[in-house]
Amino acid sequence: MKVYTAATSASSETVAATATDADDTVEITVNGEAVDSGDTVEWEEGENTVTVKVTDHNQPDVSTTYTVTVTYTPGDGEG
After folding, report:
1. Contact by Cβ (8 Å): 29, 51
2. DSSP one-letter code for 76
3. Are 13 and 40 in contact (CB under 8 A)?
4. Can you give the pTM of this predicted structure?
5. Exposed / middle / buried, residue 19 (Cβ in 10 Å: 0-12, 13-18, 19+)
C-alpha cells in the first residue's frame, strides 16, 4: 500500500484516477463510499480518506492500493 496526503478547499471537489494501462481496472472509494473516476465529491471537514485500487488486467490477483488522506478546511462562509 502506498500512502499520500493532500489538502484542499471548496474549490477542489473532484476525484479522478486513470490506470496507465487502459485494460487495468481502477476502484475508488472516498470515506468508504464507492465513486466513479471523475465524480464530484463533497469533502467532509477535516480528514477524508481516498483509496484507489488498481488491478492488473493480466494478473487479476495483482493489485496496488493507494491511500490519500485529504484534509479539507472550509474557507470564509463555507462548511
Report:
1. yes
2. T
3. yes
4. 0.69
5. middle
Dist CA 67 CA 75 (whole Å): 25
Take residue 7 and report the three cell numbers written for it: 489538502
What does the alpha-carbon distance between residue 51 and residue 79 come to, in Å, rounded to a whole number?
23
CA 77 – CA 19 distance, rounded (Å): 37
List the Cα angle 55/30/17 in 5-degree steps.
45
Give the pLDDT of the chain (79 residues) as one tens digit per residue. 677 777 776 666 666 665 556 677 888 888 888 888 777 777 888 888 888 888 888 888 988 888 888 888 876 544 4
